[in-house]
Amino acid sequence: MSSKSKVPTISQIAERAGVARSSVSRAFTRPELLNASTVIKIRKVAEELGYVLNSSARALSTGKTGNIAFLVPDVANPYFPPMIRSAQLAAENLDYCVFLADFEESGLKEEKLIERFAGKVEGVILISSRMPEERLQGFAEKIPIVLVNRDVQRIPRVLIDAGSSLKQAVRLLADQGHEEIAYLSGPSVTWTNKQRQASISELTNELGLRLVIIPTEKPSLESGQAVVDKMISSGVTGAIAFNDLIAHGIMTELNSRALKVPNSFSIVGCDNSISPYTNPPLTSVSNETTEAGKIACEMIMSLLGETNSKNGQIKVLKTLLIERETIGLPYK
Amino acid sequence: MSSKSKVPTISQIAERAGVARSSVSRAFTRPELLNASTVIKIRKVAEELGYVLNSSARALSTGKTGNIAFLVPDVANPYFPPMIRSAQLAAENLDYCVFLADFEESGLKEEKLIERFAGKVEGVILISSRMPEERLQGFAEKIPIVLVNRDVQRIPRVLIDAGSSLKQAVRLLADQGHEEIAYLSGPSVTWTNKQRQASISELTNELGLRLVIIPTEKPSLESGQAVVDKMISSGVTGAIAFNDLIAHGIMTELNSRALKVPNSFSIVGCDNSISPYTNPPLTSVSNETTEAGKIACEMIMSLLGETNSKNGQIKVLKTLLIERETIGLPYK
DNA sequence: TGTTGACATGCAACCGGTTGCACGGTATGG
DNA sequence: CCATACCGTGCAACCGGTTGCATGTCAACA
Asked: Which secondary structure element, helix H or strand E, spans residue A210, and what is its range?
């Protein structure tokens, strides 16, 4: 028979303090409208009674939930946590709370999640969205959306452009004498993958190198290991992977076949997530994911403020190639 | 002049469908009470009008928000994302949404966050809480709380017990002939750190080894690097670190001083987060963080269901020492 | 001293669902 | 053919804040 220590409502505070409910409400939301002493009195009573604001009630009458949703393809992919963190911190500073959900690399699940969150949040930040463009447009009409690493007209977005860094990597490989290289591609539908592949392809064409595109199942360590056979039999002497996880999977597998990186094979990763930790340390593309999360959050917030949404703003973030120890001469 | 395509309410659905508001509500919540054809009719109209349930309104009248909060000390610490992910997935399967927040290793911030979430969620999962016990008890009286890696009476909790694995590591070091080893401790207030330190200490005492406790600033790579001087001058030949990040920081710093692991120094990490990726691969303690997240979520849910909270259930998860390549003979 | 206005507070409607209860209609059983 | 039960639906109160407007008080000013 646990005495349910239910939290009191403003009515109970009002009664105890001998004022109207509206005054209690104002004591918290617009204290400047009240006599200072009244505010103090009300706050004191509220404190004594252990008052906790009922957010649902406030949200219902104001129409603002004070929440946003942050959807990512895979929480456990080390690429995302720094972004999640910075976005959450930025939101918190503006008194917003953030829902986090993982759509498991699936566009369908993404849609389901948006629908579920639609009634609970004021806006949604979508990372590496897999949804078809028209669906995205449809949702964007109903609820403020900001995209990260997805380029859709008229929807605000922040893009991390690894193009120039990847070209630099290609050039590095070419300088060492590599003539045939592979790109271990990531999720084919993503903007990120398309953009990375296009940049690499552009430069290999220009330099007259042969580029072999090898798809991977998922941007994970295991998928990297799984494509090594195909990669080796393609005859390439170096490779650029969609991300560090794939690159590391390849290194692991090569190592188990007694093929040393970089002496027997050169490899470049992307995202600079686990690359400082690999053996040997992986040359990789570093990108400002922390900054991206913060900016995405700020974009959503600015979207909430304005009525005539000046849609379509874009922010492009640059990247940096971090040279470590996984590029060497081609092995004949 | 963007025509605000406001989402309709049940009243508008009701009017359009020629039924009462209550029927619309029931069409979604308890369709078995209505004539099947009525349900279909209502759902059709709702679909046409693009109806979206207003969660705040529902929450206000039912008293259930359908949300929980998940608070972690540091989202970017690779130990947590798998736990976050599994908890979120588990919650989602029960139609719950999860708020994520980072309390930045601070007990104060933790309190602020709980207070902020209190009115928005039905329960809180607290990972590695830094709050004083009495505050925790206080909150637990107001809102269902489940702890992970914190041991407080009468509050449900899941504990990951690395004790036996760490003892195994000590034994391994002793077997190699190490007589003086260090423990690079983590956040001193955490249960996890106390428990790890106690286990190690217990066995070194038993075996007659000298144990040097060296505190670190934060469980991060940089903090690991920073304590190497102190560690070396203490005269130990091997060390166990609170987590992989610290261990890796130490390895990096040793490496820059031309001290090779494991030939010049032996080291063991904990959490098995980045240990497979380090150079050389780090011997570390693997723990079921994924399982922990899921269980914590299930505990919260069971707490919500019952009235007379059978508080204080505990679940202890075991760990496993993964031997890799960072333990060798002591260097004289 | 009467008028005006600023300030402090109360009243009551409203936000959008949910739900106990009442009501009318139809089927069932005696 | 009537009594009873059940089924489908509507009515209206309620959840707990917020807010436009009305009211009352008091000081300043003419």
From this structure: strand A210-215
Pick from A320, A319, A314, A294: nearest CA to A158: A314
Element (H, E) at B67: strand B67-72
Window from A43-57, A256-270, A299-313, B68-82 with minimum mean pLDDT:
A299-313
The three state secondary structure string of B180-236 is EEEEEECCCCCHHHHHHHHHHHHHHHHHCCEEEEEECCCCCHHHHHHCHHHHHHCCC
Nearest to A129 by CA among A144, A143, A109: A109
A75 vs B97: CB contact, 8 Å cut-off?
A: no
Q: Is the C-beta atom of B38 closer than 7 angstroms to strand D?
A: yes
* Nearest nt by C1' to A26 Cα: D18
- CB pair distance less than 8 Å for A75 and B59: no
CATH 3.30.70.240 fits B163-287, yes or no: no
What is the rounded average pLDDT for all residues in chain A? 94
Q: Other CB atoms closer than 10 Å to residue A105's CB: what's the count?
A: 20
Q: pLDDT tens digits for B254-268?
A: 998 999 999 999 999
Where does the pLDDT of residue B6 fall: very low under 50, low under 70, confident under 90, or very high at 90 and above? Answer: confident
Q: Is the CB of A273 under 7 A from strand C?
A: no
At residue B124, what are phi and psi to the nearest 5 degrees? Answer: -130, 135
Does A282 touch chain B if contact means CB atoms closer than 8 Å?
Answer: no
**Residue B119 touches partner A, C-beta closer than 8 Å:** yes
* pTM of this prediction exceeds 0.85: yes
DSSP sequence for A163-183: HHHHHHHHHHHHHHT--EEEE
Length of chain B equals 332
CATH code for B67-159+289-316? 3.40.50.2300
Cβ <8 Å between A88 and B100:
yes
The bridge status of strand B180-185 relative to strand B238-241 is: parallel
Distance of C1' in D9 from CA in B53, Å:
22
Which CATH number does B10-53 carry? 1.10.260
What's the confidence (pLDDT) of residue B306? 66
Provide the chain A residues 31-60 that lie in CB contact (below 8 A) with chain B.
50, 52-57, 59-60
- List B residues 293-332 in contact with A (Cβ-Cβ < 8 A): 307-309
The H or E element containing residue B241 is strand B238-241
Note whether B67-159+289-316 and B163-287 share their fold. yes
